[in-house]
Amino acid sequence: MEKTGDIINRLTEQGYRLTPQRMMVLAAIEKSDHHISAEEIYAQVVAKYPYFNISTVYRTLELLHRLGLVTETDLGGGRVRYHPADKGHHHHLVCQECGKVIDLDESVLDHLKLVLRKDYKFDPDTRHLAFFGRCADCSK
Amino acid sequence: MEKTGDIINRLTEQGYRLTPQRMMVLAAIEKSDHHISAEEIYAQVVAKYPYFNISTVYRTLELLHRLGLVTETDLGGGRVRYHPADKGHHHHLVCQECGKVIDLDESVLDHLKLVLRKDYKFDPDTRHLAFFGRCADCSK
DNA sequence: GTATCTGCAAATCCTTTGCAAGTCA
DNA sequence: TGACTTGCAAAGGATTTGCAGATAC
Q: Which residues from A are below 8 Å from B76, CB to CB?
């Protein structure tokens, strides 16, 4: 769990406190192999520590995001999802039918990123791009 | 205003009623040259007709969307935006810094769409794709 | 010791829903 | 007339905030 350790170091280095609540939030984020929502983090932590409150999840996520330690992704559906910033870049295909999220290899977008930078002077967030549409199962 | 007329025809053809409220919602959508939110539609219509209610906006948009007459786009920020389906396809560069939305020519995405369909069996919503990032002004 | 954090409750924002009254066709 | 629509009010889900008590350092 060296990634969690990294984030912990960054927190303490910057003068933030290491509370059990923050450690449990971090553990939940790291453990999840996909993007995780505030609600899901809350569910995991409250199972261990019943007094835990969801506002602490939001406050912790806001802090981690401000420090650049997690990435926020709005994949639609009125729910933002979070992901450790150091876990590598990838993109998403979001099925508007069933809600499934498919990860997309980064290289697929190389050409597009070039065009956006060159012709539009737009610097895309290379960590998370989202494409909405319909997945194979729902296209049948 | 022939586009509005088109939509009106589609509504009546399908047995839906033509109410003043619906016409005012349609006018607001057509008048807007960019994507418009429910809140903005409401503000425009209520200025003319004070009894107008925002739930009517949502119900009308849901109907128009169901009939394929408007497109819903979730550009993040917890607010869905609407656009007449017949006003042509285009895509968006959304600046996460200042919120500006830049329209993007459809052809830029031809190659990408091909790959998504072929390699991922994913049928992207070719009407609205959103890219998040940073615009020229905010990159300075 | 004390500034930072947390839990709790209430508030906010956007959207949806139930229902009775109103209205288009 | 009668089914479709609306206005109103209340509910809903996700997120934010104020505040007083708790705690990491």
A: 74
Distance B99 CA to D22 C1' (A): 39
Q: How many angstroms separate the Cα of B102 from the Cα of each of A58, A123, A138, B95, B136?
A: 30, 12, 30, 8, 11
Q: Is the pLDDT of residue A52 over 90?
A: yes
Q: Please give the average pLDDT of every successive group of 10 residues along chain B, which has 140 residues.
A: 68 92 94 85 95 96 91 72 72 72 80 87 74 76
Rounded CA separation A81/A98 (Å): 17
Question: Token pair of A134, please?
Answer: 């319909």
Q: How many CA atoms lie within 13 A of B132 on its CB side?
A: 22
pLDDT tens column, A110-119: 888 888 888 9
Residue extent(s) of CATH 1.10.10.10 domains in chain B: 4-86
Smallest CA–CA separation between A20 and chain B, in Å? 30
Whether the beta carbon of A51 falls within 7 A of nucleic chain C: the reply is yes
Dist. CA A97–CA A88, nearest whole Å: 27
CATH number belonging to domain A4-86: 1.10.10.10
- Enter the pTM of the model: 0.78
CATH architecture designation of domain A91-133: 2-Layer Sandwich (3.30)
3-state helix, strand, coil in chain B (%, to 5): 50, 20, 30
Stretch(es) of chain B classified as CATH 3.30.1490.190:
91-133
- Residue A77 C-alpha from the chain's centroid: 15
Work out if B55's Cβ lies within 7 angstroms of strand D: yes
For residue A96, give the DSSP letter.
Answer: T
Confidence tier at A51 by pLDDT (50, 70, 90): very high
